[in-house]
Design brief:
The protein is α/β, with parallel strands linked by helices. It has ten helices and eight strands. The protein has helices at about 15-20, 25-30, 35-45, 70-80, 90-105, 125-135, 200-205, 225-240, 245-260, 280-294, and strands spanning about 50-55, 60, 65, 85-90, 115, 140-145, 180-185, 215-220. A six-stranded parallel beta sheet has the order 5-4-1-6-7-8. The chain has a two-stranded antiparallel ribbon with strand order 2-3. α7 (about 200-205) links the parallel β7 (about 180-185) and β8 (about 215-220). The chain is globular and about 45 Å long.
Length: about 290
């Protein structure tokens, strides 16, 4: 039996939680990954957590969307609690939102995150900037959470096929940092990391131009934030401590981001929702992940 023949029930409980409530076909993509794909990504993250760079922020209606920054923030916080040095790489506005979350929710006594602006440049200049950044920072782990990735045509496309290249910092080459473990988290097919399944995405999701930027470990989920929380559930087992955000923290993060202009991708409005799901829905997912942590 091949991976693609495996039924959804073959996935461990945490992976099943990440794929539940779905409507974009991530369960079909998951059949082409190892059943325990999130557990494997978490182990890689744990082993390579010394120096971590995270990138997030998907341009929607003039601002970053609400999916991505919360997951990246809480994942960075969890890794930092486990001893990692963490930094965020993105456009200025996304970094400002992450800084706002850090000011509100970063724990005392834990090394604070760094914020590294990535300019809006063409592909050649962007790849050179990314290579230079990787050479200077020497990341041991690079994670992309709901970050639009480059297509085979060199463009950056949203779910409707709209071209957002002029608004997207082309960070893709960071995921080729020498000697770094790499993780991509996505929920649609156009995010960094989906290059690992690009031919499958074109066939399964009828997406003519998926992202072609690969990663060593792809995590697919109904909502990308939840993919980050799945990683945190597994990392909590490895750390022997609960690294997940509380339901109250999750709701507060969404409210704070909306107040800073983050956009709910389903409506194009600045509101505390993610991909059609409410804070109560996210609280239910977090409760299920905690129960599955054991």
């Amino acid at each position: 039996m091949t991976v693609s023949d495996l039924p959804a029930a073959a996935h461990p409980p945490i992976e099943r939680i990440l794929l539940a409530r779905g409507w974009r076909g991530m369960d079909r993509l998951a059949r082409h990954l190892p059943p325990d794909y999130c557990a494997r990504a978490a182990r890689a993250a744990w082993d390579a957590r010394a120096r971590v760079l995270l990138t997030t922020g998907f341009w929607v209606a003039g601002h970053p969307e609400t999916d991505g920054p919360p997951g990246a923030f809480f994942l960075a916080r969890g890794l930092a609690r486990a001893g990692a040095q963490v930094g965020f790489v993105a456009e200025d506005e996304a970094l400002g939102m992450l800084d706002g979350l850090a000011r509100a929710m970063w724990p005392a006594g834990v090394a604070p995150p760094e914020f590294v602006p990535f300019p809006l440049l063409d592909a050649v200049a962007s790849d050179a900037f990314a290579a230079n950044l990787a050479a200077r920072r020497q990341p041991s782990l690079v994670v992309a959470v709901e970050r639009c990735g480059r297509t085979a045509g060199g463009r950056y496309l949203n779910m409707r096929g709209g071209d957002i290249t002029p608004h997207t910092a082309q960070v893709d080459a960071l995921l080729a940092a020498p000697a770094a473990a790499t993780i991509g988290i996505g929920d649609g097919g156009n995010e960094i990391g989906m290059g690992a399944l690009a031919p499958v995405i074109a066939a399964e999701l009828d997406m003519p131009a998926p992202c072609v930027t690969p990663v060593a470990h792809l995590v697919v989920a109904t909502v990308s934030n939840w993919g980050a929380y799945g990683l945190l559930a597994y990392l909590s087992r490895l750390a022997g401590a609960d690294l997940l955000p509380s339901a109250e923290e999750s709701a507060a993060a969404l409210q704070l981001l909306a107040g800073m202009g983050a956009i709910h991708g389903m409506t194009g409005r600045a509101e505390a929702m993610v991909d059609g799901f409410s804070p109560a829905d996210e609280a239910a997912v977090l409760a299920e992940l905690r129960a599955a942590m054991g």
